[in-house]
Design a protein that fits this description.
The protein has 203 residues and is of the alpha/beta class. The protein has a single domain, classed as Class I glutamine amidotransferase (GATase) domain (Rossmann fold), CATH 3.40.50.880. It is built from 5 helices and 13 strands. It has helices at residues 12-21, 49-59, 61-71, 80-83, 190-201; strands spanning 2-5, 26-29, 40-43, 75-78, 86-89, 95-96, 101-107, 121-129, 141-148, 150-154, 160-166, 168-176, 179-182. The strands form 2 sheets. It has a 9-stranded mixed sheet with strand order 2-1-3-4-13-12-11-8-9. A 4-stranded mixed sheet has the order 6-5-7-10, covered by helices on one side. The longest helix is centred in the last third of the chain and has 12 residues, at 190-201.
């Protein structure tokens, strides 16, 4: 069984529908005590990093997510959910994250260009990937749908499995053992996004 973590900060129905298209039931789960009973876990997220961490902590979901990661079972963060995997974020000050991936989340640097980048980075863009089971069957370069104003910076380059160009290259997918994250929305990315979710199901 797959759990979609419900902490009042994500497009839960669209993620659940994407799994349904693949013929797989995914349960929306808001009880941190039940997370350990699932085989796989999805951490979605839309909104501000600080608000998300406050919601997770107020429900005891932060510790449940850390325990799930330590269990060795596959888990994946999507968009804000990927950013929450990191140690901290600079969004609206400094906020501590789950600390499952070394590094931090920063704003797009719009100052280095004569024509500033439009933020948020929104729409279809290409991801350049390293070999990883999450991307089995996909081309090395494939398009996915993005909506975000901040991006991750990894401490360890080995944790980076995908990068995207928006003014400059930034990390758009990460993996450390059983903990994975992707910045784009697979549930909005049609065939490529469903292929990534299907690979996650098969892990």
């Amino acid at each position: 069984m797959i759990a979609i973590c419900d902490y009042n900060m994500g497009n839960l129905a669209s993620v659940q529908n994407a799994f349904a298209k693949l013929g797989k039931d995914a349960a929306v789960e808001s009880d941190p005590d039940r997370l350990a009973s699932y085989d796989k876990l999805v951490l979605p997220g839309v909104g501000a990093f600080g608000d998300a961490m406050e919601h997770l902590q107020s429900r005891g979901m932060d510790e449940a997510l850390k325990a799930f990661a330590e269990s060795g079972k596959p888990m994946i963060g999507i968009c804000l959910g990927m950013q929450l995997l990191f140690q901290s974020s600079e969004e609206f000050g400094s906020t501590e994250g789950l600390g499952l991936i070394g590094g931090k989340v920063v704003a797009f640097d719009t100052t280095r260009f004569s024509h500033p980048l439009k933020v948020p980075h929104m729409g279809w863009n290409r991801m350049f990937t390293r070999p990883h089971p999450l991307f089995d069957g996909l081309d090395e370069e494939h398009y996915l749908y993005f909506v975000h104003s901040f991006h991750a910076v990894c401490d360890d380059a080995e944790d980076v499995i995908g990068e995207t160009e928006y003014g400059y290259r930034f990390t758009s997918a990460v993996a450390r053992e059983n903990v994975m994250g992707i910045q784009p929305h697979p549930e909005k990315s049609h065939r490529n996004g469903l292929a990534i979710l299907n690979n996650f199901i098969g892990m």
